[in-house]
Amino acid sequence: MREDWMVADIFLSNISISSNPNNEPVSIHGSSDHLRCIGIGTDAAVFQSIDVPAYAFKMYANDKMEKIQIEKKVYELLGDSPYFSTCFGFKDNYLVLNFEEGINLYDCLVQGIPIPKQVIKDIDDAREYARQKGLNPRDIHLKNVLLQNGRAKIIDVSEYVQPGNDFRWEHLKKGYDRYYHLIEGKPIPLKIIETIRKRYNQRSNYSAAFEEFIGNNYKFLTALRK
What keywords tag this UniProt record (predicted)? Predict the structure, then answer.
């Protein structure tokens, strides 16, 4: 197998990642002119190399390294699928993935870019595909899905070996079906989205009913219509 992505390793070695409490995005330490950060999550940050731009390098926080082998195994089980990226290799602190074009659904809301119904169907189909491979597709949220030419591409599968249902996708799908038509094509203020995101992540009961969350945050949700 080709490993031309190894040319980026020397530049990635100048960077380290640390996690933050309360499910907040990781912090990045160090930099390189040969890399650009294309995504920041709660466990890892993703970089693209200007030297080998066909790859994305998902670098995990120092206390999350065990997830590298787990996620690598998940990609092996998923195999070749239009719904997920491809893993080409790994090092001690990062995975090597196919670089995926597109904008995540979070930024679609911020910028007012319409999210077609096909995206919702694609995610449902992707979850069924993952289940058929013996996996448990969970932790699907706005930043983990890219919009690619009107279709969905899921870019984080690290929790697919964990048990249980976190209900993230079920709640997002209900929100889309019931309320998205009110805000479609309208840029949503970042402050409002972040307030809702943080309140959702701070729920004491992660299986709390969708209706309960809506009721507790009604004033923020109605502000989206303005």
Answer: Kinase, Serine/threonine-protein kinase, Transferase
Query: Bigger pLDDT: 49 or 23?
Result: 49
The pTM for the full model equals: 0.86
Enter the tokens of residue 182: 């009110």
Which of 63, 98, 133 is a domain's end point? 98
AA identity, residue 73: K
Task: Give the pLDDT of residue 1.
Answer: 44
For 101, the token pair is: 């074009």
> Which pair of tokens denotes residue 4?
């031309």
CA diameter of the chain = 54
At position 145, the amino acid (one-letter code) is V
Final residue in a domain of this structure, among 53, 68, 98: 98
Q: Report pLDDT for 151.
A: 97
Considering only residues 141 and 22, tell me which one the structure prediction assigns the higher pLDDT. 141
d(CA 19, CA 36) in angstroms, rounded, equals 19
Cα gap 118→88, rounded to integer Å:
28
Domain harbouring 27, CATH code: 3.30.200
Angstrom CA distances, 163 to 68, 127, 134, 137, 206, stand at 18, 14, 12, 9, 14
